[in-house]
Design brief:
By secondary structure, the chain is mainly α. The protein is built from five helices and no strands.
């Protein structure tokens, strides 16, 4: 007799159910706040180009990845396979770590630019840091609940 988790388990939603189930509902907020981070970093002046490059990479990578997963889930490309639950948990975990590192580096760069830059540039970077930490929180929350779903599948 097969264990209950092998035959049942938690699966990913399809169609518009993606927009009504938790943690998949977080895709929308990750999309919005990730896009804001991308826009703010692209338009801001960061004193350390390497930091700006990393934050841009993270925001674009996560924006594209989140968009792709959202579309794939909505069209039902996963067909209820458990390997997609593993993919979801892995992606959310990597995105969480990426965003945490980008947020810390952007905050450090913003602190270093407090003197010698215009108030507009400084405030723009503060906004980028705030939205980056919000995106980090969203990705961490999504990762935790995706890992719980993966464990129960």
């Amino acid at each position: 007799m097969a264990p209950a988790s092998a035959s049942g388990g938690s699966t990913l939603p399809s169609g518009f159910a993606v927009l009504t189930t938790f943690p998949d509902l977080l895709f929308i907020f990750e999309f919005v706040f990730g896009g804001l981070v991308w826009i703010l970093i692209a338009s801001s002046l960061v004193p350390i180009p390497l930091v700006q490059g990393w934050v841009m990479f993270v925001s674009v990578f996560c924006f594209v990845g989140t968009t792709a997963l959202l579309i794939l889930y909505m069209i039902g490309a996963h067909s209820g396979e458990t390997s997609w639950v593993t993919l979801d948990a892995a992606y959310q975990s990597v995105a969480s770590l990426f965003y945490l590192s980008a947020s810390v580096l952007e905050a450090l760069a913003t602190i270093l630019m407090q003197d010698g830059y215009t108030s507009k540039h400084y405030h723009e970077n503060i906004s980028a840091v705030v939205f980056s930490y919000i995106a980090t929180l969203l990705y961490v929350t999504h990762a935790v609940f995706s890992l719980i779903r993966w464990k129960s599948s």
